[in-house]
Amino acid sequence: MISKSGPRAKKIVLAYSGGLDTSIILKWLLTDYGAEEVIAFCADVGQAEELDGLEAKALKTGASKCHILDLKEEFVRDFVFPAIRANAVYEGQYLLGTALARPVIAKSLAEVALQEGADAIAHGATGKGNDQVRFELTAMALAPKLKTVAPWREWDFSSRTELIEYAQKRGVPIPVTAAKPYSMDRNLLHISFEGGILEDPWAAPAEDMFVLTVSPEKAPDKPTEIEIAFERGDAKAINGQALSPAALLARLNQLAGANGVGRLDLVESRFVGMKSRGVYETPGGTVLHLAHRALESLTLDREVLSLKESYQGRYAAMVYNGFWFAPERVALQALIDHTQANVTGDVRLKLYKGGLWVTGRRSPKSLYSEAYATFEKDEVYNQADAGGFIRCQGLRLIIGAGVK
Predict the structure, then answer these.
(1) Residues 153 and 233 grouped into a single domain
(2) Same domain, 164 and 227
(3) Model confidence over 293-343: pLDDT tens digits?
(4) List 8, 23, 85, 102, catalytic entry
(5) Which of 42, 126, 195, 379 has its CA at a distance of 20 to 30 angstroms from the CA of residue 181?
(6) Could you tell me if 97 and 187 are in contact, meaning their C-beta atoms sit under 8 angstroms apart?
(7) Does 243 share its domain with 198?
(8) Which position among 64, 78, 153, 183 bears the catalytic label?
């Protein structure tokens, strides 16, 4: 089969997960597309047991090599933590678990392709989704001479049901069956579920689908209380124990997941235009977002906080739409990181049966002054001053009322 997008690439590095799509893509690139060599690339961003036997499977399916790189620390340190500092939440709900993983994967994918002397990269993202944009914009920014092969935009398959049939005919082992047809994507920040039975936004997700979290009903009857220490906007320790970024997020996943914290069922707006229903588990990320915002409330100047909040939605959209390496995201990150100089201190939280509450916050850089805020007698604030302040604030209202 000749590529619909131009001359065929001869040597391709495939972003390979061992899942349904990329298992078939590996075989298809060699037998239908006509590539001379396909190298499998897998980024370990926290898929856990999903990586077991991956290299053997890739080689058996036809890959000439299989690179598996441990990117967990880089993922959390250089992608998750900057987004936490930005309080990035897409459409007010989604904590960007997949969107943040794609640029770190695509970055290393491009690097391996250049090292191997490949003329193309390939990915398993569909022509309907966001990931195709994230992979390809990253490649354009970092390795613009590499060609991209996107099989979902080229082959004749039109559904995952057809892929399952193709795999069965070609003897390609796959982890998805018709009885359990939703897709799952896992990394250290979250697990996402979509497709199949979840395409009906009225259908409730089955309880046995969840991996990182117990149901709130089955969570312990006793609350769990934790303290997170931050330095310049980044979490550094849990309950006094210093941890690396990846280890810290993994520990929060355990603590929050055991208490049923971090489940989300939403309908989001894809970059290409349609709505999509997804179910997510983001236990540790949910805790980090709430804790970071609590510490900012104590340490950021009011106008700085307001300015930062005005850009948070735009930052989240940049990440969601695949523009991590675009100059506007980099510039905005510099502004955000400047605001984090004093976001240092501790936040105490309570986790209980799916609920999450901040119960305390403290900082050596705190802007909270009990001397000014107290309802008791104080020696620093003249309450009579508020009268003139209010009259000045209301002057335009008085003038406007006169005109009416």
Answers:
(1) no
(2) no
(3) 999 999 999 999 999 999 999 999 999 999 999 999 999 999 999 999 999
(4) 102
(5) 42
(6) yes
(7) yes
(8) 183
* 21 is a catalytic site residue: yes
192, 174: one domain: no
* Per-residue pLDDT tens digits for 206-251: 999 999 999 999 999 999 999 999 999 999 999 999 999 999 999 9
- Residues near 368 by beta carbon (within 8 Å), at least 6 away in sequence: 298
On whether residue 73 sits in a domain, the answer given is yes
Query: Catalytic annotation on 185?
Result: no
- Do the domain assignments include residue 124? yes
Does residue 272 sit in the same domain as residue 241?
Answer: yes
The CATH number for 49's domain is 3.40.50.620
Same domain flag for 150 and 65: yes
Active site residue 183: yes
Interval 134-151: pLDDT, tens: 999 999 999 999 999 999
Residue 135 burial by Cβ neighbours in a 10 Å radius (0-12, 13-18, 19+): buried
Angle, helices 302-320/327-339, rounded to nearest 10 degrees? 150
Distance CA 400, CA 395 (A): 9
User: Is residue 257 domain-shared with residue 129, that is, in the same domain?
Assistant: no
Please name which of 345, 237, 296 lies closest in space to residue 85, comparing C-alpha atoms: 296
Asked if the structure places residue 215 within a domain, the reply is yes
| Choice among 8, 17, 21, 134 that is catalytic | 21
Query: What's the pLDDT at 378?
Result: 75
Is 234 tagged catalytic? no
Decide if pLDDT at 68 tops 80.
yes
Owning domain of residue 326:
186-362
pTM: 0.93
pLDDT tens digits along 366-389: 999 887 777 887 788 888 899 999
Around Cβ 386, how many Cβ atoms within 10 Å?
Answer: 10
What CATH number has the domain bearing residue 226? 3.90.1260.10
- Domain tally, the chain: 2
Active-site choice (131, 160, 185, 277) = 131
Rounded distance between C-alpha atoms, residue 366 and residue 304, angstroms: 14
pLDDT of residue 375: 80
Which has the closest alpha carbon to 28: 67, 68, 65, 61? 61
Q: Are residues 16 and 59 both part of a single domain? A: yes
Residue 4 has pLDDT above 70, yes or no: no
